[in-house]
């Protein structure tokens, strides 16, 4: 039976679907439904009219694709969730960008790269809960930074006007936010410790110098407990750490650079961990100093160290022991 590939462009409000029955077809059938339970049910019914052997494909879009994934899974349908960078790199230079065009490109990618597609399974409820807690913690941290900045501003104003009420209120908010962050972090630890596999991988990950509890927890979430990425190179691409060379023919235009299609949260966290590792890991500190003497910029060196951390994390997860730096 011939497989029919459905490419879906996911947004907050809408799902644009393109049905690819044959790569030689002149025009795909493209339609739009709401990103809701009723809309997804309508999309599934319409796609089933095209055939029974269906394979759905859409990009990583965070929470916007969560409902779609859960409904496809509940219906027993096969689907793949693919990084946007993989789709773009597979098609070279393309012109135009609309939701309709994006859906067609995703469908074409699925049809041409079907040998690479892997059926996707949503992470368990505990991983989804862990992701929500980490997202909420990030929001709390941002709020704390905003209040701290406000406090600095009002402390300056205090020199000329009475703002004691405002400052007292800011202090109360900061104290409450700190309490909330502590509660969230305790809940994160409880979830991880309650699952043997997550707990094991978490301990291995935090054994890598520069990788703290929050980075380790995010690694569990973004790798679906190290099941959705089979090698560190792919994860570095996903996080926007792996550099790509921009070239045309035999000429190279400019320096290598990382992709803008990255997981900004993970990249920021790994950069933070890389800065710590460059100070406290002897091997990486030596590497940093050597590259600095060669005239390499700090940002590039830290990016490379972040890549090394990911390689160490994946290596240690595959082993049955924590990461240990060999002494020279």
For this entry, give a set of tags.
328 residues; alpha/beta; five-stranded mixed sheet; two-stranded antiparallel sheet; 12 helices; 9 strands; 57% helix
SSE layout and pairings?
Blueprint: E1 4-10, E2 14-20, E3 29-34, H1 37-48, E4 54-59, H2 66-74, E5 78-82, H3 84-91, H4 99-112, H5 125-157, H6 164-194, H7 196-206, H8 213-222, H9 232-239, E6 243-244, E7 247-248, E8 251-252, E9 257-258, H10 264-280, H11 282-293, H12 298-318
Parallel strand pairs: 1-4, 4-5
Antiparallel strand pairs: 1-2, 2-3, 6-9, 7-8
Helix pairs in contact: 1-2, 5-6, 5-8, 7-8, 7-12, 8-10, 9-12, 10-11, 10-12, 11-12
Structure commentary:
With 328 residues, the chain is an alpha/beta fold. Helix content is 57%, strand content 12%. It has twelve helices and nine strands. The strands form three sheets. A five-stranded mixed sheet has the order 3-2-1-4-5. Strands 6-9 form a two-stranded antiparallel sheet. Helix 5 (125-157) packs across helix 8 (213-222), helix 7 (196-206) crosses helix 8 and helix 7 packs across helix 12 (298-318). The chain is globular, with a radius of gyration of 23 Å. The N and C termini lie far apart (59 Å). Mean pLDDT is 88; it is low at 245-254.
Relative helix content: 55-70%
Compute the separation of the termini in Å. Answer: 59 Å
Class of secondary structure makeup: alpha/beta
- How many strands? 9
């Amino acid at each position: 039976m011939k497989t029919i590939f459905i490419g879906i462009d996911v947004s907050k409000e809408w799902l644009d679907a393109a049905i690819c029955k044959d790569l030689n077809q002149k025009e795909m059938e493209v339609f739009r439904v709401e990103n809701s339970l009723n809309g997804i049910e309508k999309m599934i019914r319409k796609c089933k009219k095209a055939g029974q052997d269906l394979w759905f494909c859409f990009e990583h879009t965070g929470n916007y694709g969560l409902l779609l994934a859960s409904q496809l899974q509940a219906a027993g349908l096969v689907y793949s969730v693919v990084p946007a960078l993989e789709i773009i790199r597979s098609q070279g230079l393309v012109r135009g960008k609309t939701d309709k065009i994006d859906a067609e490109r995703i469908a074409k990618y699925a049809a041409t790269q079907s040998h690479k597609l892997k059926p996707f399974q949503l992470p368990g409820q505990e991983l989804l809960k862990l992701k929500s807690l980490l997202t909420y913690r990030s929001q709390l941290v941002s709020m704390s930074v905003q209040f701290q900045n406000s406090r600095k501003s009002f402390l300056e104003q205090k020199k000329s006007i009475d703002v004691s009420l405002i400052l007292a209120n800011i202090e109360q908010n900061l104290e409450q936010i700190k309490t909330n962050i502590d509660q969230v972090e305790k809940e994160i630890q409880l979830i991880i410790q309650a699952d043997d596999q997550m707990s094991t991988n978490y301990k291995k990950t935090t054994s890598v110098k520069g990788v703290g509890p929050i980075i380790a927890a995010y690694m569990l979430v973004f790798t679906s407990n190290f099941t959705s990425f089979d090698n560190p190179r792919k994860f570095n691409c996903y996080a926007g750490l792996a550099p790509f060379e921009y070239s045309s023919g035999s000429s190279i235009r400019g320096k290598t650079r990382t992709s803008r299609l990255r997981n900004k949260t993970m990249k920021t966290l790994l950069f933070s961990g890389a800065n710590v590792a460059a100070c406290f890991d002897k091997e990486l500190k030596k590497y940093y100093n050597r590259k600095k003497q060669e005239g390499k910029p700090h940002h590039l060196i830290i990016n490379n160290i972040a890549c090394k951390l990911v390689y160490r994390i994946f290596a240690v997860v595959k082993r049955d022991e924590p990461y240990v730096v060999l002494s020279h």
